[in-house]
Amino acid sequence: MQIGQGQDVFWGILLCVLCAGIGTASMFSMSWGILLASVIVFGILSAYGCYRAYRWTGVTVAMVFFLLGMLRFIAVDSLPENDISHFARETVRVEGILREEPRLGEDGQGGQKQRYLIDVTRIKKQGCDWQKGSGGLYIYAHSQEAPAVQIGDKICATGKVRSPYGYQNPGQIDTKLLLKSQGITASLSAGKQGIKVTGMDTASFRRQLVEIRRHYRERMERVMPKADAAAIFAMLFGGYDGIKSELVEAFTAVGIVHILSVSGSHISLLAAVMAALGTLLRLPKGVTAVLVVSIIVVYSLLAGAVPPVIRSAIMGALAFVALALDRERDARRILLLTGLVMLMISPLLLFHISFQLSFLATAGLLYLAPVWQKYMREHGCNQYMAAGLAITLAAQLATLPILAWYFNQLSISSLLANLVVVPLVELMIVIGLFAGVIAFILPFVGGVIFACDSLLLGIVTELTAKIAALPFSQVWIPSLNFGWSALYYALLGLFLLNAEQRARVAVWLKQSKQPLGIGVLVLLVFLVSMRLAKPGELQVHFIDVGQGDAALIITPHGHAFMFDCGGTRDGAFDLGAKVDVPYLLHYGVLKLDDVFLSHAHEDHAAGCGSILKKIPVAQVITADEGVTAYARSMKLGDNDPLLHKFHVGRQGEHLVVDGVTIEVLFAPPLQDGDNKTGNEASNVYRVSYGKASFLFTGDLTREKEAQLLSEGIDPASTVLKIGHHGSDTSSSPEFLQAVKPAYGVFCVGADNSFGHPKPEVVRRFAQQGIKTYRTDEDGAVVFYTDGEGLRVEKYVD
């Protein structure tokens, strides 16, 4: 191979092995010393191999990068001793510097809830002196009015430190790792006592940038509704504050939601405008490249210079400068080198969805789009259509495994949206940025231009909503594991072969046609035989929904049921839409036969509302509390047609599907003194398949447990969903002795304020020899049974 040939392949391989090293280190622990010694040994071998030009040198170089990936992950994953995360579950006083503008919102009681992000400088435990601290910390506060605060101010607050926590389910974004990649390692609730603010240098550069963004927001709000101003501001500088949920959902449905956050598309747009300006003015290519870089730098600063913006700016600037200088191959190589350097500096980026999508989308644009655009032009497609379709297809297909894993949806309508809506949005962004500059000099003229931008937003909103409403706007796609993803990208790489390479592949396929066909046939027969020979299994998924209950049942032939759906008591987080539905899609559940709700409390029933709106559900079985209680919990109107699906479950009712029996084991009637909606109303359901059975008790109280037993009902089951999240108001010794479970599952939120599960309840299960799992520690817990044996898998090992 001559010098300069195959460099893309070489750097691509090194990037892949570096990623493999980072991923391996995240799953297995290894000694720092052994890894460092291994790097030195393979480094020496690589140097010697390069000097003597040995063929095996590439293998040793790849091993160096694999081991470096492991070392870098271990280095950043270990936090210093004074990091705020080491004070989890302790009440402390902290001081720090405000890193970004505070997030403000209404608390539903006429006050404000605030979120501040600080870089901790000092920590003080009760009865101790101040000590040096570090790490990023979210501070949550509630007050009637938020104090005036700016980036760079010193913030002081007191409260209990909590570790970051996300919903630990397959396909769910790892919130803890995502925050850690941004240097955020803990949170603290200051409550109503709020924060104390000490002003700092008011002339700082970052504050001046904030003032510029505030100028844009204020000028827009003077001439357009606040919701429009929020949407246009998001398109200019990123963020979702104040945007109507309908607009976000419509943008999501048509696959262009990335426009509402600063991404590579914004960088590319501005770079393209400056490149076009350079061409129009007939500027030298070097001057055009300087203009491109300058506008990207200025815009990145205005957008807050946060890590996602910086990543997009670096990749966009380097790649676009290469393109502006007619060095397309260099642009591809620069992208690979940039990814390699970024991951070497910050290996946690590998697990950041923003980095994954940005890098792969950019790779698609550089590698795939030119090939398909040329093909379309050669087959009669005009230049505009060819460019639009090629870019959209390249970005979608390059990111397909990521979209499948996290969202399980592919937007077919994105092709139309990118041709019709995106150009209008790009025009809005250019006009909006221009209007803000004009408003500094001529406020009235700037206001008029902003008003035109608002009218254009109305057109974009209507077009997006209509495209999103088209039949088959979104299609479900299955989650792809690592093996299938690797095969997918290998097949996608065939598009990058030149004519000579394609001819070689064609010859090889022709020569291997018969043995290859026989091999594929044997493989298919083997897979089908394994599938037929494998007995049908019942799956019971206990989903991590925080401090709430949610379980998914999948029968041997694919019928699906849910038992409770989780939810939050304050309704601030739509758990049904953001946790339940993604979980169902991840496992290919596109409809539910029934939903069984134990009672109407939000932590059991609220999530059902979004499930009903997004996934077909035949009916909802409830306790006898009245449909109004469930409507309130799910935030459904009293006359919502979805309420016609609700039916009260009566004790003794049962149904059999695929050999699986579901029975309403206990439906306690409300007695004098009972709450009309409460734990006393909890229905008890049992799911049985062969010798295995699963008991769902909701928040059944000890008194109702005793009533169940007094009525002669036998609750014996293999697995018990432990009542009331492990509260001491449930799971009496007598009830456990009657159930005789082999396994128990605590559905509980991490560091919850109730102290669930109670230590005495945990001991009670241990004393009776019952193996228990916890969703806060184990994540989603899944039981598989063929009616005879039982196996358990947990998401967190």
From TrEMBL:
**Record NCBIfam families:** ComEC_N-term, ComEC_Rec2
The record lists the membrane-crossing segments as: 12-44, 56-75, 252-276, 283-302, 357-372, 384-407, 419-441, 448-469, 475-496, 516-533
| SMART domains on file | Lactamase_B (SM00849)
Gene3D superfamilies cross-referenced by the UniProt entry = Ribonuclease Z/Hydroxyacylglutathione hydrolase-like (3.60.15.10)
Q: Would you say which domain of life the source belongs to?
A: Bacteria
A GO-annotated cellular component:
plasma membrane
Q: What is the lineage of its organism?
A: Bacteria, Bacillati, Bacillota, Negativicutes, Selenomonadales
Any idea what this protein is called? Competence protein ComEC
